[in-house]
């Protein structure tokens, strides 16, 4: 957690104990804190305060968006083949049409156009991929939806992008936007869903009138104010951190290529025959190492204090190769050689050097 988030959180665990739904003085103080946090979060997400629904994390936010919208509007559902499981799961549960991606990880806009028709009620497309970090052409995709499926709501999973991109601008055309606090230095288990323009949404839970009856239950005041503080700090330092962390990510990539033979980037850059620009989040480096199993490598890295991932953190321990990498055209063998390194606001140049040395040592041991 960012220090700003921790400072905001602690008083609501130790001093201010009121329930924001209560009418007494401590309750009114807690409600004021939630309202102030909602206003701050809304401003950074390009929404009105009444359009922000606080949730128990990114997964709940995505489920509420997909299932809540589908139950309200009906119609067909469309999503991409590289969505996070928090989106893919609920989409598949209602029979979604899954559209493919290019080998670069970018959404295949032609395939999306082919899946759209007036009967589509919801389209869910992430802003940036949580595994390989590829930023998706969301604005172009939304334009296709508005043209070919005019009654459809558009949901975007912006969880991975929140630290790095201007969500107010980049998600302005979406009806529903999901974020999670831990991705920008807030507490785990805290998230939000933007519900723009009066988009109809059936709640997944039934109970009280909190969050305008879209997410009932006593609000987690401490986590809400910490989330707002973390997002505020992330936005304030975003431009500087993009450059700093992006340079560290590039140094990590260069170091691995120089010291670890057989290092292959997972994101295929544009070529003359397949032009276009590929933007990758500054904090993401996704590579594979020839002749090295990811699980064995991650164990050795963990022993050296370097904590990386195979695919999404939510899928750790899964035996199946990443559905994202398979959708990009990797073979199962290649997908099981791929590792994701993520960098953030607390990452330093020393961390990068430690990581490069640890990977070089581990790969040499495994190949030997």
Describe the structure.
This protein is α/β, with parallel strands linked by helices and 368 residues long. The chain folds into two domains: 3-236, Type I PLP-dependent aspartate aminotransferase-like (Major domain) (Aspartate Aminotransferase, domain 2, 3-Layer(aba) Sandwich), CATH 3.40.640; 238-367, Aspartate Aminotransferase, domain 1 (Alpha-Beta Complex), CATH 3.90.1150. Helices cover 42% and strands 12% of the residues. It contains 14 helices and ten strands. The strands form two sheets. A seven-stranded mixed β-sheet has the order 1-7-6-5-4-2-3, with helices on both faces. The protein has a three-stranded antiparallel β-sheet with strand order 8-9-10, covered by helices on one side. Helix 11 crosses helix 14. The longest helix is centred in the last third of the chain and has 22 residues, at 238-259. The chain is globular and about 65 Å long. The two termini are 39 Å apart. The model has no long low-confidence stretch (mean pLDDT 95).
Topology:
Blueprint: H1 3-9, H2 11-14, H3 25-45, E1 52-55, H4 58-73, E2 76-80, H5 85-93, E3 97-99, H6 109-115, E4 120-124, H7 138-148, E5 153-157, H8 167-170, E6 176-180, E7 191-195, H9 221-236, H10 238-259, E8 263-265, E9 284-289, H11 294-303, H12 323-327, H13 332-335, E10 338-342, H14 349-367
Parallel strand pairs: 2-3, 2-4, 4-5, 5-6
Antiparallel strand pairs: 1-7, 6-7, 8-9, 9-10
Helix pairs in contact: 1-9, 3-9, 4-5, 10-14, 11-14
Q: Kindly give the count of domains.
A: 2
What is the number of helices?
A: 14
**Straight-line N-to-C gap:** 39 Å
For the largest beta-sheet, the strand count, sense and barrel status come to: 7 strands, mixed
> Which percent range fits the helix content?
40-55%
**Quaternary structure of the protein:** single chain
CATH architecture level-2 label of the largest domain: 3-Layer(aba) Sandwich
Radius of gyration: 21 Å
Q: Please state roughly what percent of the residues sit in beta strands, choosing from under 5%, 5-15%, 15-25%, 25-35%, 35-45% or over 45%.
A: 5-15%
Query: What do we call the CATH homologous superfamily of the largest domain?
Result: Type I PLP-dependent aspartate aminotransferase-like (Major domain)
CATH fold-level topology of the largest domain: Aspartate Aminotransferase, domain 2
The beta-strand count equals: 10
Shape, principal axes of CA atoms = globular
Order of helices and strands: HHHEHEHEHEHEHEEHHEEHHHEH
CATH class of the largest domain: Alpha Beta
Class derived from helix and strand content: alpha/beta
* Strand order in space, largest sheet: 1-7-6-5-4-2-3
